[in-house]
Amino acid sequence: MALDKNGIARRIAQELREGWYVNLGIGIPTLVANFVPEGFAIEFQSENGILGMGPFPIEGEEDADLINAGKQTITSLPGASFFDSATSFGMIRARKVQLTVLGAMEVSDRGDIANWKIPGKMVKGMGGAMDLVASADNIIVAMQHSNREGESKLLSACTLPLTGVGCVKKVVTDLAVLEIDPQRGFILLERAPGVSVDEIIAKTAGRLIVEGDVPEMVL
Amino acid sequence: MALDKNGIARRIAQELREGWYVNLGIGIPTLVANFVPEGFAIEFQSENGILGMGPFPIEGEEDADLINAGKQTITSLPGASFFDSATSFGMIRARKVQLTVLGAMEVSDRGDIANWKIPGKMVKGMGGAMDLVASADNIIVAMQHSNREGESKLLSACTLPLTGVGCVKKVVTDLAVLEIDPQRGFILLERAPGVSVDEIIAKTAGRLIVEGDVPEMVL
Amino acid sequence: MIRKVVANADLALDGLTDGMTLMVGGFGLCGIPENLIAALKLRGSRNLTCIANNAGVDGFGLGLLLESRQIRKMISSYVGENDEFERQMLSGELEVELIPQGTLAERCRAAGAGIPAFFTPAGVGTEVAEGKEVRLFQGKPYLMEYAFEADFALVKAWKGDEAGNLIFKGTARNFNPMMAMAGRITVAEVEELVPAGMLDPNAIHVPGIFVHRIFQGAHYEKRIEQRTVRPKNTPL
Amino acid sequence: MIRKVVANADLALDGLTDGMTLMVGGFGLCGIPENLIAALKLRGSRNLTCIANNAGVDGFGLGLLLESRQIRKMISSYVGENDEFERQMLSGELEVELIPQGTLAERCRAAGAGIPAFFTPAGVGTEVAEGKEVRLFQGKPYLMEYAFEADFALVKAWKGDEAGNLIFKGTARNFNPMMAMAGRITVAEVEELVPAGMLDPNAIHVPGIFVHRIFQGAHYEKRIEQRTVRPKNTPL
User: Fold this and answer.
1) 8 Å CB contact between A94 and D111
2) CA distance D206 to chain B (A)
């Protein structure tokens, strides 16, 4: 059965390593924080200027001066720090953030990502996404395998304007976990529980490498 | 009579305007602070990271963590701020400091300055001088008119390695106040009390413009 | 003490004229100069270019100046959540330049640091790179980006003193410090204005040298765009 | 909480080997990492390149490492006040690269901000410009300068917490923050190390993400280079 959003987030949480600073994008990526084991040594960065971001505040304790990059009210944990936007993107560009998790409209089998603009539609802007994808050593995309029209979002080349080139390392969708080898394409690492390799093949438009038995995710 | 160091500093203090941020170099320039009228609205910046620098501390109250760019113990005034060296030179390059007063070994009649290096001698380094002279809108040089060998320090072209090009606006020496017009040369504005125009002409190697009666400084 | 305190937002905008380029601090509605935006609306200055990360929402923040058609051009990284903005942009009344958020921040920072241009990896291989110089450093491509120039910077701080020193709170800091440093004339509104000497000189975020005018703002609304909470008694 | 606390200066230098490039914080003897310099002397690492504004004095600061011939090259803005330095430089044992202080600061800042290169007016028309790209912006010439790279950054702060956050005091801040941000491995010694949560998150000068190892230093000497005072009862 295909994963729901929380399932995708839960699977991505398995990618976290202790000692990492992590930036979570808007949407499914934000949910990843909910699946971090208690006491796990990790810190969340939000590019509007906080390290040590905590959970949403308890009702009545919201602080308008304390939000994340999705403009949601948040809290800060002991050891947190606040800083300006130049410092924030400085640490991003200087590769101090070990993992960035982003949503996407399209990902190519060479690691290109498109997630900010659909020609003919109102463009809201790239926000910090271009800085993040241009700088992160490790980028995981969290998204549905297909769009609402049922078309694959895993392509041989993005059709939409790019956010970044050759930067995505891994994609976790409702159907699969895939690694990107820019030379070879999407390498199928895991299937969602009950999802067949054939379905993933059918729904992946880009080059897909299936090697040996592909295990089911363990969630 | 030629001015002593305090006389030069006192004359330069007359150039200060209320509302200015001022950076004083090592040596004679440091003395300028002693001649600021009480309550005069001015703030001193030291490029090692302080705005609102105050006088030397009272004996016994020195703080090793509070020094100026000359590494002298200082104090801070109400409204002071501390900042890092990048921010400090940021405000200098961004021309937020209205006046820089520097010592010099040589000044040319086009406004070039040499004050950091004598070939064949131990070179100590330029410190912040190159940043200051490259950025300041208003640079006054405080120096003796002649060097220890009796040679003029006001030249048609500097013989020593340059610190900056075409940047000095005014020179105050023990003998005179001179403005620099890069096209015309040193323009004699004032004489030290009792010093003759002839003496200044004799001791100035660069192009010197003497127009009309040259008044004595009023100290 | 160099005199910087002005009586109110209107006086703080003295000299701001039609066609000028302004930087306006804030991220979303967090840390925006509410009083200055209100004063600017009353002032009625037109054909403004605004450098601001976002464009406010309908009826608040820079949305107020969009309603009154005072903004000719926005330079931002993200402009969602604003119907009037969308209408003006699609109709061509409003010019919009979208740039990466980190580039926006660094172009402000460069202006306040006297750095005319710098290189950044953001946007390489995308539309953002069009017409820009690309250069390799250690084999990796970067774009050359320029410092912004702004006639006025309008910023909001938590605390300020009469010497112009500013301290921000939480993520309301965001773009405010760099913009404060970048403005040809920088105006700061603060929630609490104190005499010089009341703020810890170690804790200053923006040294007073960058701030030309300062006043204590009033009636802060501090609207929240996305109120997200967890129920009481939820464990961390 | 990401674990950063180490027991002492020696452990903090784990992995520092001969031939590495180090940044060392401080301006003169103000804000220098006394414990780390002492540990580095004991460690005996050689052929080091040191990026530091100054080179200490005879018998203190980086002067200690000059005495033991551990430094091959200094990259500094000012190196007076040190006889041993002068001797080694004149004899050719020590390589010295002198660069403008603001350029030194900005090259550190660029490294910590992921900016590979930038333009500055400092040094145009002087020896410093030799071999460098000169470029005009609005008719004015600037030099292109590159970000530094450093294997280790050794910095000293006033207070720090277990999350690696740093706060500096007075002008002991100087180069420490940018160097802390620039090091591939950044080691911070602090006068007072407190548990996470004890420092005001608004007052942090260097966010913990930049600091890899932290410890509380001991026996700070804090020598004063130029003790200048005025007599008691002198009015301000």
Assistant:
1) yes
2) 11
